[in-house]
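$ ./design --mode recover --in tokens.txt
reading tokens...
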């Protein structure tokens, strides 16, 4: 916001009520859900591990092992 518009916004009483409501709602949300934060952190850590495992083991198209790209010589008949 432009500084002049911000000051005008703060002059209205309804905006102070809105700010107070948001402050109280934010405090209550954090206070009530504080018990869930360890679970959320554990799930986020697990999701990060899965994502890292998935994206760190991606191979480039020409990155196949040498055994798969080499063909075995054909054996015809008996002993050479």
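writing sequence...
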């Amino acid at each position: 916001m432009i500084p002049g518009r911000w000051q005008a916004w703060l002059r209205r009483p309804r905006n102070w009520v809105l700010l107070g409501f948001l402050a109280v709602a934010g405090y209550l949300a954090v206070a009530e859900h504080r018990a869930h934060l360890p679970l959320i952190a554990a799930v986020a850590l697990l999701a990060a591990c899965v994502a890292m495992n998935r994206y760190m083991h991606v191979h480039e198209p020409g990155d196949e092992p040498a055994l798969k790209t080499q063909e075995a010589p054909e054996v015809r008949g008996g002993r050479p």
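exit 0
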